[in-house]
Amino acid sequence: MKTRTLLFSLPLVFLLLFYFYPLVRIVLQSFLPEGVWNPDKLENLFSASTYWRILWFTTWQAALSTVLTLLLALPGAYVFARYQFFGKNVFQALLTLPFVLPTVVTAAAFRALLGPNGLMNTWLMQGFDLAGPPIRIDQTLVFFLLAHVFYNYSLVLRIVGSYWAGLDPNLRDAAKMLGASPRQVFRRITLPLLMPAIGSAALLVFIFCFTSFGVVLILGGPGYATIEVEIYRQAVQLFNLPMAAALSLVQIAVNFLLMWLHARLSRKSQVAFIGETLAGNVERAATPGKKVLVGANLLGICLLLIAPLLALAVSSVTWEEGFTFAYYQALFTSEANSVFSVEPIRAVTNSIGFALAAMVAAVTLGLAAATFLAACRGRFASLWDAVIMLPLATSAVSLGFGYIISLNRPPINLRDSLALVVIAHTLVAFPFVVRCILPSLRQIPKSQGEAAALLGASPFQVFRWVELPIITRAILIGAVFAFSISMGEFGASAFVTRPHTFTMPVAIFRFLGQPGEMNYGQAMAMSTLLMLVTCSAFWMLAQLETWRNSPGKFLCDNKP
Amino acid sequence: MSEHADHILLVKNLCNCYEGTPLLQDIGFALQQGEILCLLGPSGSGKTTLLRLIAGLEKEDSGSIVFRGRDISTIPPHKRNFGMMFQEYALFPHKNVRQNIAFGLEMQHCRPDELLHRVDAMLDLVGLQGLGHRRINELSGGERQRVALARSLAPEPQLLLLDEPLGSLDRTLRDRLTGEIRCILKKLGVTAIFVTHDQAEAFSVADKIAVLHNGVLQQFGTPESLYRRPRNATVAAFLGFTNLITGSLDAAAVYHCPLGRLALESQTTHPGATVTLLIRPEGSQMITPPAVTEPPGLVLSGTVTNRLFQGGSYRVTLQCADNFLTFDLPIDPPPPEVGMGIHLAVNPAALILID
Amino acid sequence: MLRKMFLQFTTCLCLLLTTITVARAEKILTLMTHDSFNMGKELVAAFEKENDVKLRFLKSGDAGAALVQAILAKDNPLADVFFGVDNTFLSRAITAGIFIPYSSPLLASVPAHLQLDRENRLLPLSYGDVCLNYDKEWFKKRNVTPPTDLADLLKPAYKGLTVVENPATSSPGLAFLLATIGRFGADGYVDFWKKLRANDVLVANGWKDAYYGHFTAAAKGGNRPIVVSYASSPAAAVHYAKTPLSEAPTAALVADGSAFRQIEFIGILKGGKEPELAGRLIDFMLSVPVQEDIPLQMFVFPSNSGARLPEVFVKHATVAVKPAEVAPADIEANRDKWLEAWTNAVLR
């Protein structure tokens, strides 16, 4: 236990240094500009109805997004948990993509598909000879709710699906034998047992939607503002730092509460954040009814999740005259005569470099934190867990500004170094790693460690030879997630001062920053490349798992 | 139908495959009201699959299962009103003891007062009075087993299926619970099918035993008939018999084997075939010194290689030619020490020729 | 495995840290700026060679975020020179007191109307006019006359054709709001926006979103042929066209009082380590070679009147003769109020 506490100091020091310290400094500086409390700029916070309205809007849009995501993703979770079908691995890899795509790209993808002159409207107008576009959801609630579903679908699918797949099939059979119809089995047995997983997934989706920035800003239009958007507006546009700090604190407080709830829930019921593979008692859809069920869900996934991605890929290889590789070719030629003139394709290698560094850091910290949390019992365990999750729910603007005033003196004068990019990515990625590893660690029966200890293994040896091999898969999954998150991360690093380095999201952002078709086309091409890199990371993971799982399959009397 | 009028369950030509591998082949048997059937076989023999087919949790590839004169293959499991006790009990972790037991009754839309009464009766029956509000994870293994039994019995199933219900318990508890289960089932007159791989358990609970091996029904009958006359070497081995000798039968129905020649009364085998001789361990007697005149049965002479006192008897292994044979001998007179010679007159009823 | 990973992590971190400290060993001049800054490679090399210094660029988010960070770091500045304060933020930057005066000799060739800070703490480097752009093709196809004045947007013929940026979240959006304030006055602009709203104006949160999301000439799914952008945007559309164009697909509307001039300033940060070199950098940035490089790098106009414009600018970019004017001090004093009034008029 002592070693584990010592290990925990690693992520704790990291958090203290790169999260709490900058945050406390910026909040203090905002509230006490010259060392005196100056509430002038804050008086609006509780008096103006604007802020209550923003808080209320932030809450209900998050709640609505959560409900919608659950409604759409739960049938999917069932299908992935219970059935084996062609291309399941590919589907799973594709499904994870939205989670790591930068917002600008998502917005572009949705527009390309559902915008007033997007693919869908064009087809419908041509097909039915309509005068105007029949789908009008631009700048509406529907549009960004759809995008929230797009982002979080895979989260629910993974959390609930893996939990579902892990439910003892005997429980269902037992209920059937006691006279429960399939519907009753679901309502009385499966659903109550799934509740922890559903609750856990719902909380996370809620947190992500609550802190939503880019999606609401771009797709929702200016009529809608979340707290995060308002923090940015107050800090950057109005230079009202006290207000921004106050709003940040509100956001952190709400999210800390939710994180804590989530930690308690997942501790009690061992819900895996990013589940083990959705294997287990799967069957092939044999009857027509089951085939329709699987088919309908896959169709829904295609329409909702894959069609926007496809629209993006399509627009990266088409122009008016038809098919083209011009955008991709342009990515390989250096931009003429610019001080930042590297071939845009260098952005890919840069991004991969950052992502690998962030991945190694996130896995190291995540492993240390998870090892501690798994052994941690008592009342504070969930609190520690929530503390680690906090960076996920913190305003990037506040933190970025915090770095400027806190990491400015030796020995940690990092505020304008490239390390800060890696640190920002690690901060966002390592809570995910913890969520991947922790449930696997908790599932290891205590007796295994005890057995090893009685056989003469030191605590380190127990970890090295018993626990580590068992959680290798979880670590791999966590690593791939950390890698992908870093690949697509833009929000946090946008508000960090850093020497100019071309990464993929930065490149996309730059291309979209200037008019001209080549810019738009290259942005689409770069987005497609970003998807491909991420997708191949997940595909490699799936291959690795199939390869690891292949030996040792045999038939036995108790067939599934 | 009339010939099966007294059969409650009739299984005919049942076959089942899993991804091309046959798990069950041409299974057929019949069961009468109130009987307890044991499906006995090593793991992988197909006994659990057979049980799940009867429950309706799996679908048969061919053959039929007829219950009370009706083919039930199209009836989904929840409408069969069969009870089932699972290997690891499959108790619902989110419900307490009472809620678990009440579940099946709720599914039958049982009246609340009736339900209360039945659950109490079930708790009484299995001796768990006062534990109704315990959570499942607060129960010991034996208690869980009783809850599982009570839960499956509460809706008064027409047929109770038990899938190695005692598999995870310790020996003493198992012996006691086996007796209790039989007692409870008999008291309620429930027809039941009990899966086990333990022949002692099968003998102590069953009215009928079906021995399965590699998906084939090897023998079906009462425990006694199985013990007295195992049909083949597989069944014999599974019942724990070790004295199996290979030999052949000549035209005069004289059996030739390494132990000598043996005239056996009209046992049904074709002459010339290779035949296995089973010598059951009980009923043989020591003779000293060997009689000059040959006694009517088989006499074995050999050296004692093992001698184990077992309370009511001695278990003695002797080497006779190249065979090691084991016998249960009375404690008086005590058999000779290890390494000494011994002469045994084998009980003629203990000699059985099998396929 | 754990040990190996830890090793990798520390080496990574060490490498990063050492590259920074190694870089510190030679003389370094740092230019802090926003994400859209760009500059010619050879020019940078020339400056570095001439002054025996390494030029380092720090990027810090959008223009607003970069300025806030520069202000927050005022006790221990991040850089020597800061570029990217525009006239909407000028007052804030001056009030914060983070710049020191530097009267570059090259200011002589910069038109007086661009020099907004009399003390020369901030020197104009470039400017661009924020104005309406329209899709020529769209109007031609439908035989509709394109708008020629800001007030035209209220006509029924242009109902539902315009997309503007939210001034609360976008800098061209704010510039366009200021154009309407300069044109219709602090009393009349709200009325204009109310009518514009009635004429079905679409508000996007940012320029990217408006231009690539809604503008018919650029967006796959766009349905708005009029957008708020820059007067140089048509030139950019030609420059970045996939096939050479003889005519710009879009046109800018720069009629008198219909555009707002965004001027971008450069200044020396107080407390920097190399104030003398910083002055030389500013001179360099204002010199003709750099000024001639600026248009194609950032698609804005150079402030030095001696700089020749590239061909694509000469042909396709326009400059407002009489842009609408609002004083920086007024902007800083009224920004909150104006934004609030705008939000109430257009969004609620």
Describe this structure in words.
The complex is a heterotrimer of chains A (560), B (355) and C (348). Chain A is mainly alpha-helical. Chain A has 2 domains: 1-33 and 325-549, MetI-like fold (Orthogonal Bundle), CATH 1.10.3720; 62-222 and 262-316, MetI-like (MetI-like fold, Orthogonal Bundle), CATH 1.10.3720.10. Chain A has helices at residues 2-31, 43-47, 49-82, 88-100, 103-114, 119-128, 141-166, 169-177, 182-210, 214-219, 227-237, 241-269, 288-316, 326-332, 346-375, 380-389, 396-406, 419-443, 446-454, 459-488, 491-494, 504-511, 517-549; strands spanning 83-84, 283-284, 318-319, 322-323, 408-409, 412-413, 498-499. In chain A, α3 (49-82) packs across α7, α18 (419-443) packs across α20 and α22 (504-511) runs antiparallel to α23. Chain A is globular and about 65 Å long. Chain B has 2 domains: 2-238, Rossmann fold, CATH 3.40.50; 244-354, Beta Barrel (OB fold (Dihydrolipoamide Acetyltransferase, E2P)), CATH 2.40.50.140. In chain B, 24% of the residues lie in helices and 35% in strands. Chain B is globular, with a radius of gyration of 25 Å. The two termini of chain B are 34 Å apart. By secondary structure, chain C is α/β, with parallel strands linked by helices. Chain C folds into 2 domains: 2-127 and 262-314, Periplasmic binding protein-like II (D-Maltodextrin-Binding Protein, domain 2, 3-Layer(aba) Sandwich), CATH 3.40.190.10; 128-260 and 319-346, D-Maltodextrin-Binding Protein, domain 2 (3-Layer(aba) Sandwich). Chain C is 43% helix and 18% strand. Chain C has helices at 2-25, 41-51, 63-72, 90-96, 136-142, 171-198, 207-213, 233-239, 275-286, 288-298, 311-316, 328-346; strands spanning 28-33, 54-59, 81-86, 99-100, 123-135, 162-165, 202-204, 226-230, 250-253, 260-269, 301-302. Chains in contact: A-B, A-C. Chains A and C meet through α5, α11, α15, α17 and β5 of A and α1, α2, β2, α3 and β7 of C. β7 (498-499) of chain A pairs antiparallel with β2 (54-59) of chain C, so a sheet runs across the interface.
